[in-house]
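User: tokens in, sequence out, please.
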């Protein structure tokens, strides 16, 4: 009998072994369906990159800033799961509700910190006149719904 992805991850989680056995996660999440991927992403997002890096310091990390006109925290779990499918860890920066104006206008914000953020995803309403730009770039952020 083949173990289901969520049963295996649940078992690792219950034993406190997800971080220690993170290299196995890639294969476990790879074949997961939509519901299993959502569950796995929620679990892996709670574990965090630092716990995995303590056990496996060579694991690649992708830093992503999530900002926008709405609550964007719900994007962390699916992105975590998708990165885990490729053996990567997510180090997220999540803005507060409607925090994109501050994040993008203040160069001292965490969004601009080169040591923290390598990619950004910005969601703004289509009626907004604000143009969402990735820090240090003249291109529009991935996922932006703003007008050019």
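Assistant: Sequence out:
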């Amino acid at each position: 009998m083949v173990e289901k992805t969520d049963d295996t991850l649940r078992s690792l989680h219950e034993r406190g072994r997800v971080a220690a056995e993170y290299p196995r996660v890639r294969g476990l999440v790879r074949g997961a369906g939509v519901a299993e991927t959502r569950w796995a992403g929620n679990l892996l997002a709670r574990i965090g990159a630092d716990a995995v890096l303590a056990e496996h310091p060579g694991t690649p990390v992708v830093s992503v800033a999530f900002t926008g006109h709405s609550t964007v925290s719900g994007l962390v779990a699916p992105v975590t799961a998708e990165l885990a499918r490729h053996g990567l860890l997510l180090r997220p920066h999540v803005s507060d509700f409607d925090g994109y104006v501050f994040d993008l206008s203040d160069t001292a914000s965490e969004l601009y910190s080169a040591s923290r953020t390598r990619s950004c995803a910005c969601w703004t309403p289509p009626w907004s006149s604000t143009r969402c730009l990735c820090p240090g770039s003249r291109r529009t952020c991935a996922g932006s719904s703003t007008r050019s």
